[in-house]
């Protein structure tokens, strides 16, 4: 499930009739709108549309057997829409004149909910009097906020009828209180807490939020409520946690039956009915069947699963930004664990007005041997952190700049890799982009090499379209690898790498017709990065294949290093 903001079936869960404002501008055709139930990054934002796992467990609100979940749908769930998505000429009878689901997605006559309207581009959950929780890729800027409306009562109380919606049920967005759509300190986060123009209580009731900063259990049952593909709220309580990601606690993976438009949906623990997460990414929603399209069906253990951001980082960020501005949300929030101590191979800095690290920098001088491979970053190296837009430069003993980086790792952190040609001293200069202020922890990592260099590197440019996630129409590059060597390649993270759009990389070997040995879709937002260590006895010619997620178009430079 992909979800761009303004596309037809975008995979991050942004639903019908939206143009993605998360990572790429412009409107996408219906095929491309199937990927991000919200996910950009991710990724930072993930990013594919949703999909059905096993049996399609989606039910209209009136038809669901669980009274508490019905109440959450009626009282705490909102559809995110643009003003053009509804007609409020009669304030006592708001209507939704857009395309039906069947027409919007060219669905076959066998498909469910074909006659539902497709008014929403994302979903959200009321978590306090005037606060809505959603995905970060759903509302990315103050302009998006101004253009967003939160619509309550967008559900069916009986077959063939919509719950009456009045202008009293529609709220405006006044500010983004907390938001993230990036990889931060090793966590791939995608969330937003938005403030309404007036309290929604007491007419509506906020959903309780799971306060624990702990992982869910693998196999645990979860339910999701939202507007998949933009249609009136559906409840799916048949999902289970597939991967809890307990080591990072950024998101978990589950088998929810969700679609583009479910981005931002509240995902509940069915044991206590608290919001445990925010739906952000997933599999492709619809596939072609003859001249029309049908829901993509995966087995309960198949496909990639749906990514759901844990709710704790969003609530913690809100409480920090507002100095514990909500008794309901912040009073019971456990303190975050203390940050790990900085590594020995690091230094902290704060700076301002450095003219992109050309003045007023905070420096560190180190000595390296010939052939050493040095990685330096406020991101991309374990323990590195960044606050603001960092800029790093690297000078040799003569004062000549030999490496630098501004934006890397899919955000405003900095990272570069440099192979030392001759032994000597080098100086890291930590600064900020332009005249801004920033700070962070600069970490360096040294991989001993051989004099004259410790490996090889290369790059190739590509532009591709309709590659079926790098499985056809790819741009390829053969590389020779020996047993024990490590190849790192990407459209991000590796020095010289770049990308536009949603890239997808695969590595095959041996002999270019061999099996796939590694792949990556979203590592740095929508860009790709992977590493692979050649097993004993498996040296030979491998092939890098560069493509784009689903049927999208993308381009960039794939850079690689071999050590």
Q: What's the topology here?
A:
Blueprint (H helix, E strand, L loop, with lengths): L51 E2 L5 E2 L6 H10 E5 L19 H5 L16 E7 L2 E4 L7 H5 L2 E3 L18 E15 L2 E10 L24 E6 L7 E10 L7 E4 L11 E4 L5 E7 L4 E4 L2 E4 L1 E2 L7 E5 H11 L5 H4 L15 E7 L9 E7 L4 E5 L7 E3 L2 E7 L4 E5 L9 E5 L4 E9 L4 E11 L8 E10 L9 E7 L4 E5 L7 E3 L2 E6 L7 E5 L8 E5 L6 E9 L4 E10 L1
Parallel strand pairs: 1-16
Antiparallel strand pairs: 2-10, 3-4, 3-6, 4-5, 5-8, 6-7, 7-8, 9-10, 9-12, 10-11, 11-17, 12-13, 13-17, 14-15, 18-26, 19-25, 20-24, 20-26, 21-26, 22-23, 22-25, 27-35, 28-34, 29-33, 29-35, 30-35, 31-32, 31-34
Structure, described:
The chain has 563 residues and is mainly beta. Helices cover 6% and strands 38% of the residues. The protein has helices at residues 67-76, 101-105, 142-146, 311-321, 327-330, and strands at residues 52-53, 59-60, 77-81, 122-128, 131-134, 149-151, 170-184, 187-196, 221-226, 234-243, 251-254, 266-269, 275-281, 286-289, 292-295, 297-298, 306-310, 346-352, 362-368, 373-377, 385-387, 390-396, 401-405, 415-419, 424-432, 437-447, 456-465, 475-481, 486-490, 498-500, 503-508, 516-520, 529-533, 540-548, 553-562. Strands 9-10-11-17-13-12 form a six-stranded antiparallel beta barrel. Residues 1-50 and 450-454 have low confidence and may be disordered.
């Amino acid at each position: 499930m992909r979800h761009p903001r303004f596309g037809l079936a975008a995979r991050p869960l942004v639903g019908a009739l939206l143009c993605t404002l998360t990572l790429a501008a412009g409107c996408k055709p219906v095929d491309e709108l199937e990927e991000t139930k919200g996910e950009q990054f991710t990724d930072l934002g993930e990013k594919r549309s949703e999909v059905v796992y096993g049996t399609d467990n989606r039910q209209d609100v009136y038809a669901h057997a669980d009274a508490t979940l019905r109440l959450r749908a009626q009282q705490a769930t909102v559809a995110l829409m643009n003003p053009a998505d509804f007609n409020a000429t009669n304030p006592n009878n708001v209507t939704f004149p857009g395309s039906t689901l069947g027409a919007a997605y060219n669905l076959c006559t066998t498909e469910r909910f074909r006659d539902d309207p497709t008014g929403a581009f994302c979903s959200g959950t009321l978590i306090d009097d005037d606060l809505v929780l959603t995905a970060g890729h759903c509302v990315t800027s103050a302009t998006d906020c101004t253009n967003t409306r939160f619509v309550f009562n967008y559900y069916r109380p009986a077959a063939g009828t919509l719950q009456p919606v009045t202008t009293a049920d529609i709220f405006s967005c006044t500010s983004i209180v907390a938001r993230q759509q990036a990889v931060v300190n090793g966590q791939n986060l995608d969330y937003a807490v938005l403030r309404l123009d007036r309290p929604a209580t007491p007419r509506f009731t906020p959903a309780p939020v799971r306060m624990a900063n702990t992982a869910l259990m693998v196999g645990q049952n979860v339910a999701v409520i939202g507007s998949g593909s933009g249609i009136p709220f559906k409840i799916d309580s048949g999902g289970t946690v597939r991967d809890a990601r307990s080591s990072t606690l950024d998101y978990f993976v589950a088998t929810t039956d969700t679609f583009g438009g479910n981005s931002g949906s509240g995902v509940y623990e069915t044991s206590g009915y608290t919001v445990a997460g925010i739906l952000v990414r997933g599999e492709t929603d619809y596939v072609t069947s003859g001249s029309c399209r049908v829901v993509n069906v995966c087995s309960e253990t198949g496909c990639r699963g749906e990514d759901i951001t844990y709710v704790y980082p969003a609530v913690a960020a809100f409480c920090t930004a507002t100095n514990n501005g909500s008794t309901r949300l912040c009073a019971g929030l456990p303190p975050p664990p203390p940050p790990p101590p900085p590594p020995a191979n690091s230094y902290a800095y704060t700076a301002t007005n450095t003219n992109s690290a050309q003045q007023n920098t905070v420096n560190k001088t180190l000595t390296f041997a010939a052939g050493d491979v040095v990685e330096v970053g406020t991101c991309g190296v374990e323990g590195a952190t960044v606050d603001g837009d960092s800029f790093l430069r690297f000078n040799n003993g003569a004062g000549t700049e030999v490496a630098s980086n501004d934006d890397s790792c899919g955000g405003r952190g900095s990272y570069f890799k440099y192979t030392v040609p001759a032994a000597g001293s080098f100086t890291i200069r930590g600064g900020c982009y332009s005249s801004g202020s920033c700070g962070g922890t600069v970490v360096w990592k040294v991989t001993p090499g051989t004099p004259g260099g410790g490996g090889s590197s290369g790059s190739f440019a590509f532009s591709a379209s309709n590659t079926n996630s790098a499985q056809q129409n790819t741009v390829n590059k053969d590389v020779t690898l020996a047993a024990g060597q490590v190849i790192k390649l990407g459209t991000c993270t590796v020095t010289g790498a770049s990308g536009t759009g949603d890239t997808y990389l695969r590595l095959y070997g041996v002999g270019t017709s061999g099996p796939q040995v590694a792949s990556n879709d979203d590592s740095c937002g929508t860009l790709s990065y992977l590493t692979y260590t050649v097993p004993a006895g498996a040296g030979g010619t491998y092939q890098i294949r560069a493509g784009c997620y689903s049927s999208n178009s993308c381009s960039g430079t794939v850079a690689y290093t071999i050590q």
